[in-house]
Amino acid sequence: MSSKNQLISWFLKNRKTLPWRPEDPYAFRNDYFVWISEIMLQQTQVAAVCEHFSRWILRFPTITDLANASEKDVLSHWQGLGYYSRAKNILMTAQILVRDYNGLLPPTRKELEDLPGIGKYTAGAILSLARHENEAILDGNLIRIFSRLETIPFLPDQKSSSDFYWNLAREWSSSKKAFLINEALMELGRNCCKVKNPTCNTCPLKSICKAFISNQTHLYPPQKKKSFEEWVGLILVIESSNGKIYFTENSKSQFLKKQKTLPHFEFPYSKTMNYPSKAEEYISFDLVKNFQFCGRYRHSITRYKIDCNVLHILTTQKISSKDPHWVSKKEILKEAGNSFSLKALKLAGI
Ligand code: SF4
């Protein structure tokens, strides 16, 4: 049996049931479901995506339903998946699809890749997994597998090395069964050829895997050079005298832009910061009854690691109006439940 057939037969035996997969592995699939599930799966575990995906499809069953929804509604259904720009791109794309493509995803790779948030990988997934076209995909799982199969000592971090990996992906997907091969490779990467401790003894490709044969799986793929930046941050939990918490659309920080979060400021470690005077950008000191440093937590956003200092400020203000900046404690999860704010609120005892 060829390696591709061995891989397919392994996949058909081990294929997991997932909400975006039809029961029949040979069935054509819904483009929209493939698109949304693949974007959700970027940097997120399958188990977490299952619940979000089902909730999402219940609320936005079609691209048109999604295009007609408000950004707030869409973001609230994305909550917990992080990287909110992905949800904003999805909404923007849905609106373009309704305007220009009759509410459907377009037919060609070029047109798909021109849409906000749809790159080479997602376009390949829609074309091959949903429509059974002979198209390649390449993500972190496939890169790891290819690097180990061929003992490739570099990552696709430049044009020439990326072309090298894409050519391998095209070789693997040059088959009428590309839809099965692509998904089998993704499943193999997630469940067998894992980052740490790959379970090579159960792998359908072990007889052709150069890293396994030479007992060098730990060397492939090579490690990415880490370039984290350490920053320090100040997060303000401003509480009114009747227990409402102040949230902002965040215009004063480069992180979590246009999201409803607690007020915050961040600086590279080398710069010093005067906490109280920063707080005054949001609340006048005449209105402060008491402020208290509650502790710190670490939060990572892309390549930034932020040492977040939390200041709890009690004010003399009583907020009775429906000012959208002030959120009652019981509505926080619904209105602004991002993990960045929730960690600070927990430290402040809220
Ligand atoms: S044999 Fe091991 S290292 Fe090679 S592809 Fe299979 S799981 Fe990955």
What does this structure look like?
The structure is a single chain. The chain is of the alpha+beta class and 350 residues long. It has 2 domains: 3-219, Orthogonal Bundle (Endonuclease III, domain 1), CATH 1.10.340; 229-347, Nucleoside Triphosphate Pyrophosphohydrolase, CATH 3.90.79. 41% of the residues lie in helices and 14% in strands. The chain has helices spanning 3-14, 31-41, 46-59, 63-67, 71-78, 85-100, 109-113, 120-130, 140-150, 159-173, 178-191, 210-213, 275-279, 332-336, 339-347, and strands at residues 229-239, 244-246, 264-268, 288-301, 304-315, 326-328. The protein has a 4-stranded mixed beta sheet with strand order 3-1-5-4. The protein has a two-stranded antiparallel ribbon with strand order 2-6. It is globular. The termini are far apart. The relative contact order is 0.10.
Q: How many individual β-strands?
A: 6
Could you say what the CATH architecture of the largest domain is?
A: Orthogonal Bundle
Query: Helix share of residues?
Result: 40-55%
The description of the largest β-sheet is: 4 strands, mixed
Number of helices: 15
Contiguous uncertain segments of 5+ residues = none
Q: How much strand?
A: 5-15%
State the separation between the terminal residues, measured CA to CA: 61 Å
Strands side by side in the biggest sheet? 3-1-5-4
CATH class of the largest domain: Mainly Alpha
Radius of gyration: 24 Å
Structural class: alpha+beta
Shape category = globular
Name the CATH superfamily assignment of the largest domain: Hypothetical protein, domain 2
Using the coordinates shown, work out and report the CATH topology of the largest domain: Endonuclease III, domain 1
